[in-house]
Amino acid sequence: MTGKRFFVIPVALLLIALLVLSVTSQREIMFIAKLVVLIIVTVSVSLPVLVRLYGLKKTKKIFVNALLLLVTTVAGLATAELAIRLAYSDVSTTGDNTSYFARRWREMNPPFLNRFGFRERDYAGNKPANTFRIAVVGDSFTYGQGILVSDRFTNIVERTAECEASGLEVLNFGRPGSQTVDQTGFLDDYVFDSSPDFILLQWYTNDVEGRERFKYSHYPLIPSSYLTGLLHRYSGLYYLVNRQWVRLQRRLGLLESYDHYMMRRFGDPDSADSRKAIGEFEEFIKRSVDRNIPVGVVMFPSLVETGGSMDAYPYDFLFDRMLSVCHRYSVQCLDLRHVYVNIEPARKLWASRLDAHPGALANRIAAEEIIRLFRPEWEKQGC
Description:
Layout: H1 2-23, H2 27-54, H3 56-87, H4 100-108, E1 131-138, H5 140-143, H6 153-160, E2 167-174, H7 180-191, E3 198-204, H8 225-234, H9 236-251, H10 258-266, H11 272-290, E4 295-300, H12 316-328, E5 333-335, H13 337-340, E6 350-352, E7 355-358, H14 360-380
Parallel strand pairs: 1-2, 1-3, 3-4, 4-5
Antiparallel strand pairs: 6-7
Helix pairs in contact: 1-2, 2-3, 6-14, 7-11
């Protein structure tokens, strides 16, 4: 009877799991049901084989040892996870917004988004009297990934660049992942309605990609998309291990590097992608000029180690092309490479050890340079 009961239990669990798989579409429940099916099938298939090969007594010992190994492995991974969380407790974000570290940062510092979905206070569409309003449009650099609102260059400019003739208001229209083509859309959808006196475009090298972004595809560390996503969101250990796994694949030449991708698409100035990127940059400027709103550009480089040499910055040809557009349209363009090149090590400029987005120091330097270059123009416009 005991043997029969032992047989009935896994069969019942298997039937329940199969029933659940047939009626649910929730990924979490489906994953658990699939795991139950896998375990039951694996044990059911391996048990008679092992008994035939080694006998019942030794088979029991094998299963006990396997169970002990599983428990020990789980305990070791849990200990390692806890150690990673403690060792990286200072990390605010990573290069993406979905990792464990980024989620922890957002939980500790939940971003306030206004009615338009920007990390900015709600503002009056009709600009208050005696106010000089600057609209800053950009991507995650403007949004301020991994840093407090008060540490963003837009907020620093508003606090420190006093207007003698009026009050100063700097509105942040930064959205992570947005490209120049998206930011041009922001002008019509949001920015022009805010009645700005000056528009500042924040530009970064990956803004030329448009909507055809680089695909960070790689051979997965775990052959389960659900489990991979789950661990990415909830495990600091998995994030670090997977990060090194992807780097190893790129070093071995198994994946296309980002540098190769950028050169392939934009290395030739006459390629279709290069012309399109220039056109999108020009379109942003022309939209502002057509509205008789003065416009400027602030260009951020990748915060890499340079050894004090400007030649160490990647994609300098993209900077040259955008600077040429600025010159052609008589638009002031601030190239931050000239000031960041003197900061060593470059990691001092990062948002965190795992996130090369501009941190508090990089934003403070950017704010100082923005005020230095653009304040004369603002004063001409009534600031």
